[in-house]
Amino acid sequence: MAGTEEDAVIADDDALYVLTAVLVTPAQFPSVLGDDYPQACAALGLAPLTDGYGLVLGQDGAGARWTVVTDDVSLVAVAIASWDCGMEYDLSPDERSVVTALPGWPLAVAVAAPGLPAPHDPDPEPEAGIGPALSPPDTSGWGPAQRRLGADEIAVQWSTWRGQVDESSFVVAGAPEAVPGVESTGEEAASAPGGSGGVRRVLAEVRAYLETPPPLGRVRSSFAPGEARTLRADGPGWSLVARTDDIAFVLLDDEPGEVLPVGRGPELPALLEALDKMAVRPN
Questions:
Q1: Helix axes 268-278 and 196-211, enclosed angle (nearest 10)
Q2: Which tens digit of pLDDT belongs to each residue from 217-248?
Q3: Potential cystine with 7: which of 18, 133, 137, 252 (Cβ 3.0-4.6 Å)?
Q4: Which parts of the sequence are annotated with region: Disordered (predicted)?
């Protein structure tokens, strides 16, 4: 998902050599930035517009990192799709569509423009309206950003993760505190792995979303093989990834590095179907 060294955006009369671009819309945003679309926008200092934004990340002639924000979402989407197919695409948003140019990058970028100094943040110039530079969230330790990245990985590599699940390892709860959608028996509850209490809380909060809609982007639906959909839901301290025709996985801030599978049971299918109906989807 990278541009070519010839791609350039004109911002403040300086050429920006494009390295990559991402979408920030209610249905598709870098989840490392937040649990929902408004949170992701807040991390960028942007208002959560209904149609969203495109972010163009690159370097100026001095090698400084810049993020150009455009409201021409379709243009950025076409560029990303073209690059993903191995095709060149000259991503040059019209100046009239440029919302702002922000110093720094909000995401980690592993490449650099050839022939330019190494990427570095521009110096703040308050008198010129250049404030502190954006920087990627810290993912060196377990926390909300790392938890959301883990959920991203599961969604992308679903078959791999699903194939590692031992059906007997499903998080379960005892009959007195049975949770809809979680396979359980009294005997299993005694040997259930840690985290089942957290899963109960997550499922309760997910069900609450059906009664009181959460902030935009907290529940998202995307393509999956066959007629299924991949569902993603996030909330304070947790992430859930599921296939509408299969099980779910839960990640918790309180359970560093743990991926907790949730069995389908008799009620999870209906919950996932209801979530899919309320979820935002890419256009």
A1: 50
A2: 999 999 999 899 999 999 999 999 999 999 99
A3: 18
A4: 116-146
User: Rounded to whole angstroms, how far apart are CA atoms 137 and 127?
Assistant: 27
Q: How far is CA 37 from CA 49, 219, 270, in A?
A: 10, 10, 25
**Type and span of the H or E element at 274:** helix 268-278
Question: Would you say 171 and 262 are in contact if contact means Cβ atoms under 8 Å apart?
Answer: yes
Confidence of residue 127 (pLDDT cuts 50, 70, 90): confident
CB atoms within 10 A of CB 208: 12
Dihedral, CA atoms, 26, 30, 32, 35, nearest 10 degrees?
10
Give the amino acid at 65: R
pLDDT for 73 beyond 80: yes
Residues 243 and 159 sit within 8 Å (Cβ to Cβ): no
> Contact at 8 Å (CB) between 274 and 211?
no
Q: State how far the alpha carbon of 121 is from the alpha carbons of 18, 33, 59, 106, in Å.
A: 16, 19, 10, 11
Mean pLDDT of the chain: 86
| One-character DSSP codes across the chain | -B--TT-EEEETTEEEEEEEEEEEBTTB--GGG-SSHHHHHHHHT----TT-EEEEEEE-TT-BEEEEEES-HHHHHHHHHHHHTT--------GGGEEEEEEB-SS------TTSPPPBPPPPBGGGTB-SPB-PPP-SSSSHHHHHHHHHHHHHTHHHHHHT--GGGS----GGG--TTS---HHHHHTPPTTHHHHHHHHHHHHHHHHS--STTSEEEEE-STT-EEEEEEETTEEEEEETTS-EEEEETTSTT--EEE--TTTHHHHHHHHHHHSB---
* R_g over Cα of the chain: 21
Structure tokens at 32: 């490392």
